[in-house]
Predict the 3D structure of the following.
Amino acid sequence: MRKRIFSRKAQIQIGETISVIFVFFILLLIGFVFYAKVLKGNAAIESDEMAQLRSVEIAQRAMFLPELQCSSDVTDSKNCIDKLKIESAKDIMRSKEVEYFDIFGFAKIKIAHIYPSNPEEEIYSRPLSEFKNKFSTNVPVSIYDPVAREYGFGLVSIETYS
Amino acid sequence: MDKKGFEMQFNWIFVLVAGTAILLLFSSIILKQKSISDTTTKAAILKNVESIIASNSAREGITTSTDIPLSTIEISCNKITSGKVSKQFSSLILFSPLKITGTKLLATSKEFSSPYKAVNMLFMSSPNVKYIIIGDDNLAREINKSISDKWNKGFFTAMPEIKYEKDTKYRLIFVNIPEGSFPASIQGMPDDDVTALKVQGDDAKGTLTFYSKNRASWKENGKSNYITKNLLIGAVFSGSNENYDCAAANVFSRLALVSGINSDRAGKLLAQTVNSECVLAYQSSKDSFDKIKTSSALISEKRQILTNELNKISIESASLEENNQKLKIRSCPLVY
């Protein structure tokens, strides 16, 4: 009779230990799920910030590209695009896609002439068909025609995808 | 053994197994977390380097100092590695030592113009690397002037007595003087910590000889060439002739692309101009752009800085400068 009581007590003790461990693991699992969610949220915010930073970097690169910049006879060659270079730059960027992919990545760069005429030219196009983020940066520029010696006004629009 | 004793023993075995399992679980979580954290840090360092490359490709001449977690960044041809994380580029224009160790990254960029701007070249190093420029001519002074005081550098007209400084790597630049014997004061340093470059030429063009330390003497690792002072500065920062040739070949690859665009532009100016005096200058400039494009493309393709092609580029650059000047005098649109 006494032996049966001890055996039962031991079984209850083991049962208690198992349930404590079970509850502990359940709590641990809940903790992990919560931690993973917080981490995922932080990673998403960081990824957004990185994508925005990359977008600005690409815009900077596009604006200082010697392939498009005005020649030295222009007073301020910064933020100035040579009209005669646009067509050739477009062709070269299309034929040397690998070289320019390193510089611009998944992006689309368009030059819109606003004044005097208003055609739009796409000089680089490598968009992502499925993307999480898309950022657009528009930079106003002078468009210089060296033959007519006239300045026009345009907008370089840079779309980056991630 | 009675039943009670058996039950007690079983209880202890159960506690031991459960305890070990919990300990193992936590240990594996900690190890995994540490490895994730390491990889994240290395990836963040690479992102920093990428940002430096991007921002310096847009501006010129500003020396930036970036704080990073203590780490070693390895730079090889078109590849940057930090720990297990690496980034491959199709065309990386970065002149730097083979390994950068420390908590600070110094970077600056200079444009490559021959004579028109083709690209911004990035120079990167650490304050732990000391650049010792030795020479007694204008070129040596020019090199010293071109490297900002923010870099760890020294300028001497003759071989100085180099004092060994802990955690410092040395790069000796011999400008139009022989490399001489290996400095006795730094003979005890590890071989990887001392490199040298011998420059023979002027600020327009010349030859480069790369050396590394081999116990108590210099070991020649290879030769190369340069045109323009800024490409020479690139060689000063390059840890090996392979890295210099790789980055310089990428510079010439961009020069070929920009020359192609400038050639098309000169063709358009030629077609639309009526001034007969300018027509000749445009025609000659278009030929020069085409020749520079061909030579640059050849250097980029062979991945070797060929002397003959550099000479051709120098000659055509001079001709372009002359034509641009003529066009300026005649009040015609310039070719670059």
User: Anything to note?
Assistant: The mean pLDDT of chain A is 86. The beta strands of chain A are 80-82, 107-115, 120-125, 134-145, 150-161.
